[in-house]
Design brief:
Blueprint lengths: L13 H8 L9 H12 L18 H14 L10
């Protein structure tokens, strides 16, 4: 079974994601951004690459996939968005 990745233009902006995740206003305004930045700083791929070094989509697809999966596992409260 193969999966098709969305085109970059189909990925919602951070503002839309924050709104859908319920962390775009009030006390939780910057929660998603802060959680993501902190996670990127802490994350390391199985190949030893740091999360902040994963800057090239074509070169780092595997690492970015690992990062996204690990982020959603750690921050499971954001998983609800995937069903919206």
């Amino acid at each position: 079974m193969t999966s098709t990745l969305p085109k970059a233009g189909a990925i919602p902006s951070i503002t839309i994601l924050q709104h859908k995740l319920g962390c775009g206003s009030g006390d939780r305004k910057d929660t998603l951004t802060i959680d993501m930045k902190n996670f990127f700083k802490e994350f390391e791929t199985k190949d030893g690459l740091s999360g902040v070094s994963l800057t090239d989509w074509k070169k780092h697809q595997s690492g970015l996939s690992e990062l996204a999966e690990a982020f959603l596992k750690k921050h499971s409260t954001y998983l609800e968005y995937l069903t919206l």
